[in-house]
Amino acid sequence: MPHRDDALPQTTFSYFFREAARRMWVSKRTSFVAVAMIAISLFIVGAFLLVAENLGRAVAQAGGKSRVNIYLTTDATPQQIAAVDSWLAAHGEFAGRRFVSKEVALTRFRQYFANLSDVVGQLDENPFPASFECEIAPAVAQSPAFAQQAKELRAIPGIDEVQFDWEWVEKLKKLINLVNLAGIIAGGVLAIAAAFTIANVIRLTMLLYREEIDIMRLVGATERMIRGPFLIEGILQGFIGAVAAIALLFAAFAAGRHFLAPHYSLLWSFLFNGFLPWRKLLPLLAGGTLAGYLGSWLSVRESGEEEPLSS
Amino acid sequence: MIHFYHVTKRFDQYSTALHDVTFHIEKGEFVFLTGASGAGKSTLLKLILRQIQPSDGQVVVNGRNLKSMRRSQLPFFRREIGMVFQDFKLIERMTVFENLSFILTVLGIPPREHKKRAYGALRAVSLHHKLNAYPLQLSGGEQQRIAIARALINEPLVIVADEPTGNLDPDLTQEIVQIFAEANMRGSTVLIATHDRELIEQSGRRVITLDRGRITDERVAVPQRAPRVESIFGIGG
After folding, report:
1. Are A32 and A175 members of one domain?
2. A26 → chain B, closest CA residue
């Protein structure tokens, strides 16, 4: 007799899916636990990715231009301010300068950090210094000649501090890497735990169907035919968990953007700038599905018919 | 078709189910296996299906030596055997149709043919009206007949039945033996393990008798007049 299911026919796959869905429905509670574990793991990974993504967007926005902030001392005289302005005008790289008065600095702070504006209001005087903001081409900003000019600038009376924003961009980039790494480590550990949960759920289901599996073997079902629905069950649990994680993440993001970002600071608006792009959502989906597959594979690989002993 | 060569089966040092059993059943034969409870009939049938392996000796079924058969070949080998189990082994959560359809899925038969083939198999055991019933909604005798329909659905090369008429009344016994006889006429080799002495004696078929794990008798039954099964086998008269 020919071995007709050496290559599994399409009908067999539809049988796998029907059986897997039916078994998940029958064991709703245990399936829910497995799906929830995957969803929680991927939600945490997704949250880290989302933070990193939005920080990355902030970096990207700043990446095209380099800004130098020249902060004046709070007691800088108009003559000192005029001298700084003249120096900047005389040096072409700084020509595109913009003066930010103490009042404008205060207004900006109130705008960006609305929840702290009361604190500032309680102070006797405006604590913010006036400054000059200069847009510098990135190539110029990194040249040795510019470093020399910046040194000269710092020595001019009335200047308190010269800040280069690419310094915080670099720090932010390091933070993004750290957040990504933390997400991958936390998510990886949780995904492994989720895979083991799925493995146990599948093992439990196999125990429940032990008698049926024995009958299937006796009537000639191959191991592939017996294991197929269990593998698909794990894959479905992983996939559904991943979809649930993405849905939860989107709901949390939308709620945050709606309720938190408008009332709080610039930081919040950075974090809720945008949702994860497809290129990051698809690996989440794939990761959940893979964790489900691994979990079910761990269970079914131990489940073969025992070789009859010839005692 | 079924060959046992000096087969011994020990479960442990105190329990030997079969002792040095040798017999041969040729292609197209219809053979009864009989013996008291504990004689080793079920063990012998399990060896044929390779649910267990012999401790000594060789079992060859349809040209395959079961001791050396690779595990991956086992499902395909079992599909050549229509087995009727004493405890039916129907899947309780599946309807009668689904029980039969599952076998057809295993065999790679397209789903569009399932209904027709399942209906045909059930008609043969007069249970075509129970297509959508669950096994537990059926009587023991009906479950027995569903198990027979499942075993025959693929017209297997070998039919092995363990007490297939144990739960049936005389009329149904006649009907079921008729079904096995027809399958035999279509070319299947049939081996039936049974306690039913009347059925055996009136069959006119070869009978292998086991007693405490040994073959104690191997003969052809000679039917008496007016048996309830004589018409089935076309004998007597």
Report:
1. yes
2. B93
Residue A232: name the closest of A15, A7, A2, A43 by CA: A15
Q: Which residue of A has its CA nearest to B92?
A: A212
A250 confidence band (pLDDT: 50, 70, 90): very high
ipTM, 2 dp: 0.80
Residues A257 and A179 in one domain: yes
User: Does A242 map to a domain?
Assistant: yes
- Tell me if A49 is assigned to some domain: yes
Question: Inter-chain contact B107–A220, Cβ cutoff 8 Å?
Answer: yes
**DSSP structural state of residue B70:** -
Q: Which residues of B touch A (CB under 8 A)?
A: 10-12, 49-55, 67, 71, 74-80, 83, 85, 89-91, 93, 102-103, 105-108, 110-111, 150, 157
Domain that holds residue A96: 64-165
Residues of A in contact with B93 (CB under 8 A): 212
CATH code of the domain containing A140: 3.30.70.3040
Question: Count of domains in chain A?
Answer: 2
Cα–Cα distance for residue pair A225/A14, rounded to 1 Å: 11
| Residue A4, in any domain of the structure | no
- For A25, counting Cβ atoms within 10 Å of its Cβ (0-12 exposed, 13-18 middle, 19+ buried), the class is exposed
pLDDT at B167: 67
Q: Which of A8, A27, A210, A219 to mutate to test the interface with B (most CBs of B within 10 A)?
A: A219
d(CA A25, CA A11): 21
| Domain identity same for A158 and A175 | no
Give the domain-ending residue among A165, A189, A224. Answer: A165
